[in-house]
Amino acid sequence: MKKVTTETIRRMKTKNEIITMLTAYDYPTAEIFDEAGVDILLVGDSLGMVVLGYEDTTRVTMADMLHHVKAVSRGSKRALIVADLPFLSYHLGVYEAVRNAGRLIQEGKANAVKLEGGKEVLDQVKAIVNAGIPVMGHIGLTPQSINQLGGYYIQGKTEGEAKRLLEDAKELEKAGAFAIVLECVPMELAKMISDEISIPTIGIGAGVSCNGQVLVSHDVLGLYSRMIPKFVKQYADMRTEMQTATKAYVNEVKDKKFPAEEHSFHLSDEVIGKIYGGGE
Ligand code: KIV
């Protein structure tokens, strides 16, 4: 099994091979997704919402990210591991950006980092790439700016916005990004961007013309019910599966059907006799 690298991902675009990416936050799911053939495991800061129960991603810290990246990297052998730089971990300047990206690689064992934004983060992208760390861009709907955006709305619908996003994508490519996530943009714009840049685009709510697709795994598996965006396709109903299994466990324990004979260990008659008979 050959490890997926950023070079593999770049080459996939030139060979017209579609890239698959899913978020992963822990060891067992990383192992399952890796075995299922997902090309990129994204340790997304969406973990703030779907794993930690926060309202949005702005509460996620470097400590949270490192904790989960370490678990995912232990579970994955094949996939490229990309870790999100969380809110405020790269906004305070180039030094902080490189230092935090470096920690995700050195301590977390990620293979690349992702950060949100276009022109405004080019200095950080260049500095991180210059430090030898691959960077994935993320434009369109950028959830870390939720307080500025005012909601999870589709981006790039007007001529001005669409041109800005196209420009951002080109600038990110020039700055050295190896791929770009396009979140919640019209599919026509995603196609234009994908055609105009040579690095792969990975879409989430951006239509079928992107070079790859990403979704939040808790949405795909039906584990998160607070918000289900239009672009999500749920492939399983794990929430119901888990509830059914859990109720069965609770009922069997209460009815003394579990543990059964096959789950139990025995003391030999000899030892029992000695205990009750008071022998040695
Ligand atoms: O954090 C995340 O899960 C992401 C995806 C939505 C691309 O950034």
Strand order of the largest sheet: 1-2-3-4-5-6-7-8
pLDDT below 50 for ≥5 consecutive residues: which ranges? Answer: none
Ligands bound to this protein structure? 3-methyl-2-oxobutanoic acid
CATH class assignment of the largest domain: Alpha Beta
CATH level-two architecture of the largest domain: Alpha-Beta Barrel
Tell me the Rg in angstroms.
23 Å
Q: Looking at CATH, which topology of the largest domain would you report? A: TIM Barrel
Number of domains: 2
Distance between the termini: 58 Å
Strand content: 5-15%
What would you give as the CATH superfamily of the largest domain?
Phosphoenolpyruvate-binding domains
> What value does the average pLDDT take?
97
Approximate shape: elongated
Quaternary organization:
single chain
Secondary-structure-derived class = alpha/beta
Q: Report the total helices.
A: 12
Largest sheet: 8 strands, parallel, barrel
- Helical residue percent band: 40-55%
SSE pattern:
HEHEHHEHEHEHHEHEEHHH
Number of E-type strands: 8
Concise description?
The protein is α/β, with parallel strands linked by helices and 280 residues long. The protein is built from twelve helices and eight strands.
Describe this protein's structure.
The chain has 280 residues and is α/β, with parallel strands linked by helices. It has two domains: 6-236, Phosphoenolpyruvate-binding domains (TIM Barrel, Alpha-Beta Barrel); 241-277, no CATH class. Helix content is 42%, strand content 13%. It contains twelve helices and eight strands. The chain has helices at residues 6-14, 27-35, 47-50, 62-75, 94-106, 122-130, 146-149, 159-175, 187-196, 217-220, 238-254, 269-277, and strands spanning 19-23, 40-43, 80-84, 112-114, 135-140, 179-183, 201-204, 212-215. The chain has an eight-stranded parallel barrel with strand order 1-2-3-4-5-6-7-8, surrounded by seven helices. The longest helix is centred in the middle third of the chain and has 17 residues, at 159-175.
